[in-house]
Each structure stands twice: as C-alpha cells, then as structure tokens.
Design goal:
Protein name: HD domain-containing protein
Largest sheet: 2 strands, antiparallel
Radius of gyration: 16 Å
Shape: globular
Order of helices and strands: EEHHHHHHHH
Helix content: 55-70%
Pfam family, one: HD_3
Strand content: under 5%
Structural class: mainly alpha
InterPro entries: HD_domain
Length: 181
C-alpha cells in the first residue's frame, strides 16, 4: 500500500512526511470544498472550505488585517491532506496532533509568510469556535454556547464548485494584499 495520497491535481502527497513544495493551494481549495463539516452529520452539506471562508470574513469584519484573514482562511488547510477529524476523536488519536501541526506550519509559512504568534493563534481559535457555535445553530438547531460574530454569514449550503472558487478568489485577493505590504 502506498504511503501517499493522490491529490486533486494528480500529485503524490505524503501526509506523514510532507514537503512544502508539494503543498498546492488548488488541492487545498478543492479538497476542503468537498469535505463536510461535523463529519457529515449536519442536516445539510456545509463544507470545510465554506467554514474557512466564513472565518476569514470574520477576521476581516473584526479589522484584524490581511495576514489574519489569510491565517483564518488556511487554519483548517491541513484537513485537505488528513481529513476533518471530529474534536473528540482527534484527542484520542496518537500522533495526529503532531502530523496536523507539521502540515499547518508548512502551509502557514508557505502561504502566509510566517506562523501565527500566540496572540494570533488565540484569535484564530476564538473565531473558529464562534463560527462553530453559529454553524451548529444554523445547521443543527443546537446551541453549543454563546459567541458573537461581526461578519454577516448565512451558513447556507453551497455547491462544492462555488466554495472552491470562493476559497481561491479570497486566497488570491489576500495573497496580493500581503505581497503589497
């Protein structure tokens, strides 16, 4: 059995032995647009790509700057290579945190130019959790907690192609803004 996955663009990617040069934004956007949040248990399809777009929109609405928008857009990008593992299961899988951390660090460095600092990671987690609360309310009718968001989001189902295109458009726009700094 191969130790690699074949990605959307046809590359052979080794998730447990990643190389930055093998990480491709098109693979990330496509894969995340095809992955359903909540391990597929939402009442309707809502992709990881849509979640990432919503998190980036929240960073923008909070006025956190282009780098934080990029960090939020990419915060779940490792899932393109190791899938979206529910939090309760992830806590029990030996080695998954290290694999995911290695991947996300490479992705942040490659596309955002650096890793988020501790304060930025705290903001990313706060935004991620706030979106999770609102997603569950919209997609499951379940109240997980209380969190305010500033971005106007609907958490509606969108076709994967639309989410993929939206992810790439936001990535391109933010990448250009970061290059202008």
């Amino acid at each position: 059995m191969a130790r690699y996955i074949t990605t959307y663009t046809g590359a052979h990617f080794y998730p447990t032995e990643p190389r930055a040069e093998d990480i491709c934004i098109e693979d990330i956007a496509h894969s995340l647009s095809m992955l359903c949040r909540a391990n597929g248990h939402y009442r309707r399809f809502y992709s990881v790509a849509d979640h990432c777009i919503d998190c980036a929109a929240e960073a923008e609405a909070r006025g956190l700057g282009d780098r934080m928008v990029m960090f939020c857009l990419l915060h779940d990008a490792a899932e393109a290579y190791i899938s979206d593992i529910p939090r309760p299961v992830k806590r029990e899988l030996a080695g998954i945190d290290e694999t995911e951390e290695r991947l996300i660090c490479m992705i942040f460095e490659k596309f955002a130019g650096r890793l988020p600092d501790a304060a930025e990671m705290k903001q990313i987690r706060e935004i991620d959790d706030a979106m999770l609360f609102h997603e569950f309310k919209a997609n499951m009718g379940e109240i997980l907690g209380q969190a305010e968001i500033k971005a106007k989001r609907t958490f509606e189902t969108r076709p994967p192609e639309t989410a993929e295109r939206g992810f790439l458009e936001l990535f391109d726009r933010t990448e250009k803004a970061l290059q202008a700094l």
